[in-house]
Amino acid sequence: MAYKTASPDRYQLLKTFARENRKNATPAEDVLWDYLRGNQLGIKFLRQHIIGDYIVDFASREGGLIIEIDGGYHSEPRQQEDDKSREQDLERMGYHIIRFTNEEVLFSPDNVIMQIENYFNG
Predict the structure, then answer these.
(1) Which strands form 96-101's sheet, in the order they lie side by side?
(2) Count of beta carbons in the 10 Å neighbourhood of residue 27
């Protein structure tokens, strides 16, 4: 998959936000990153990665997969509309998106990892 980056006029701002997001990761993001980091699944993942004009929680550029971890505010109608639009844009760029809730990652990490592996083995 070809590498896609942000518009040049937005990249530095997004880069700053991504860096802050990595420094202030949620507990669920930290848990999942412990499983994904260092190619532990045989797949390279990046966290808080810029794709287009978005920052995604985790991305495998080679595998074309984006993993998003959703907190409670993602159940709000306005956020659901925004998420749908964002997903459509990212899918047009050639990515597949898998979403997990914070609770799924924190309380069923083995199931989350199995779903990620199924995407690649699938």
Answers:
(1) 46-51, 54-60, 65-70, 96-101
(2) 11
Strand segments (E) across the chain: 46-51, 54-60, 65-70, 96-101
Entry pTM: 0.88
43-77 pLDDT tens trace: 999 999 999 889 999 999 989 999 999 886 546 66
Calculate ∠ Cα 77-79-81, nearest 5°: 70
**Tens digit of each residue's pLDDT (9 = 90 or more) over 76-109:** 667 677 878 999 999 999 999 999 999 999 999 9
Contact 90, 56 (CB under 8 A): yes
| Residue at 119: amino acid letter | Y
